Amino acid sequence: MSNDRFPVGLEMDVSYPEFQVHLALLSSTRLRFEIREGALARTETVAIQVVPLGNGIFAVSWQEQDGATVTNVQDYDRGQVHSFATLPGGRFLRMTGRMAVTRPGTHALDERPQRNKALVHEAMTALFQRHDASAVERLYAADYIQHNPDIPQGRDALQALVAGLSPAVHYEPGLMVAEGDLVAVHGRIRGWADAPQVVVDIFRIQDGRLAEHWDVLQNEVPVTAAHGGIAMFDPAEGTRRPVS
């Protein structure tokens, strides 16, 4: 796994229970830290080793001039730093701090939008193209919240709905937009109502599963030459430009 996505140039304040430290990621091999107050107050530039752990997580380790050794697990998805330090006298510290980015780095490290878009795409095609009711337990949270008043609450109700779908039901995903733990997908569904419908589904993702859902549906209106309009839905719309 490559270090290419390590956010060189990023600076952050990390707030631990007992003190705050400012970190500047100078390169993939050098880091500057500044502890501004308390018994550990000092500023130092250290040589680091970076090991990417996937999903916006990096293990960063170094040794300081006084012999202290530190390993940080920097989790950019969750905005946390887990720090493990052995001080010169042998005292061992385990700390978790919240990170506040004060200067962005060279790479966007929140990989949740791409992962969440893939999750929503799999869920919508598994349920409403392949009619695979078994996918509900795998992809949806047990306490799934449904904001469509025509569909009962919970994962079991959704699984029963999918199991009873008409073979005529077929969903086509289009444009997808994601930010943080939210994904919106613009699509078209046939066989759900008397006429094809264009739908915007919005999902909230929690712990890798779909936890909450909102939707808005509208009957598809064909384009007429007289008005020179543009189609409400185009299956290729999601491939024209990357949206995260």
Termini separation comes to 23 Å
Strand content: over 45%
CATH topology of the largest domain: Nuclear Transport Factor 2, Chain: A
Overall number of strands? 13
Coarse shape:
elongated
Mean pLDDT: 89
Oligomer class: single chain
Low-pLDDT ranges: none
The major sheet is characterized as: 8 strands, antiparallel, barrel
Strand order of the biggest β-sheet: 1-2-3-4-5-6-7-8
What would you report as the Rg, rounded to the nearest angstrom? 24 Å
Structural class: mainly beta
The CATH class label of the largest domain is Alpha Beta
Query: Mind telling me which CATH architecture of the largest domain this is?
Result: Roll
Structural domains: how many: 2
Question: What percentage of residues falls in helices of 4 or more residues?
Answer: 10-25%
Number of continuous helical runs: 3
Report a brief summary of the structure:
The chain is mainly β and 244 residues long.
How would you explain this protein's 3D organization?
- It is a single chain.
- This protein is mainly beta.
- The protein folds into 2 domains: 11-103, Calycin beta-barrel core domain (Lipocalin, Beta Barrel), CATH 2.40.128.20; 112-239, Nuclear Transport Factor 2, Chain: A (Roll).
- It contains 3 helices and 13 strands; from the N terminus they run ββββββββααβαββββ.
- The chain has helices spanning 112-128, 135-139, 155-163; strands spanning 11-15, 20-25, 30-35, 42-54, 57-63, 69-75, 80-86, 92-103, 140-146, 170-179, 182-190, 197-206, 209-219.
- It has an 8-stranded antiparallel beta barrel with strand order 1-2-3-4-5-6-7-8. Strands 9-13-12-11-10 form a 5-stranded mixed β-sheet.
- β12 (197-206) and β13 (209-219) form a beta hairpin.
